[in-house]
Amino acid sequence: xxxxxxxxxRQWVLRAGGRFSGRIDARSATVGAVVVVALxxxxxxxxxxxxxxxxLSALPGALFGxxxxxxEYAVRELQLPRVLAVIVLGAAMACxxxxxxxxxxxxxxxxDLIGFGVGSYTGALVASLVLGLxxxxxxxxxxxxxxxxxxxxxxxxxxxxxxxxxxxxxxxAISAMLAAVNxxxxxxxxxxxxxAAAQWGAGTLDTAPARNWAYLGPAFALVGVxxxxxxxxxxxxxxxxxxxxxxxxxxxxxxxxAVALLVIGxxxxxxxxxxxxxxxxxxxxxxxxxxxxxxxxxxPWIVTSLVGALLFLxxxxxxxRVSAAVTGATLPVGVVxxxxxxxxxxxxxxxxxxxxxx
Length: 358
What we know:
Number of helices: 13
Largest sheet: 2 strands, antiparallel
Strand content: under 5%
Order of helices and strands: EEHHHHHHHHHHHHH
CATH class: Mainly Alpha
Distance between the termini: 30 Å
Strand order of the largest sheet: 1-2
CATH superfamily: ABC transporter involved in vitamin B12 uptake, BtuC
Helix content: over 70%
CATH architecture: Orthogonal Bundle
Number of strands: 2
Shape: globular
CATH topology: ABC transporter involved in vitamin B12 uptake, BtuC
């Protein structure tokens, strides 16, 4: 009996006007559609999650007009900006994680583990607690903190090249040192600033930047520009996924592309950190889940961003609704992502151990 012929992954061909055409991977498109549906359900859940008395039946009126003014204010002014911030920043964190896992060629190469997120947090703390700057200053210092941390980690890990495992270990060490600096900065500040910094440092969406369009508008615009730049570089990322040696052999401009991706990845995590504080494990787990669902050898960027948005939104709904029902108080969303991410990290380490032993 002859073996079945492998025709490769099924693809759909799209044509528009007879001049433009493109191919879409069928499995990735299906997974993306399912995640979009789940994201829509979580979006509705996020709008009614707060304890403001707006039920599911009153949601259309509160969202589009015709409902009680209090309900309209609760949904339009409080919950809608928060939910949109969660979706956009979750996608930003997921793509940042995918970039660093690709550059380091290590499944643990996430910006929140190798110190880039902590570096952004340090920069924002210096701007707010030491220099007394506002949100714009915090954003700039968060970006500078992330880039400086990335430069230090790459410099210390460079030994005729940057090995993924060496870079991760160096990043973990730098992350621990920066965490100590962050604690010192908080302890030396006055009580009110220390409490605000500690709440923000836990990863929360209860602060003003996560609910105010004056802060969210520029953040959304910057994330949009960065994701567009990532989309332009996505054909080269497929070559980088093959490894630096093969990428150079195929003529890809690996150093320039890697530097551009590094800047995009740090900027994405810096924007998210400025709005929510450091949030762990979304950047780590979203690219893994997207690759497993799509059964893809490279990072599917659109599905990765959708999975990151879904993970962050579900975590926020749990932080608002489920934790309030169990403990009587809402939790910072960063606490929920740490709990869920810790479970996923244990699963990831267990499967890697089985793979190595097998």
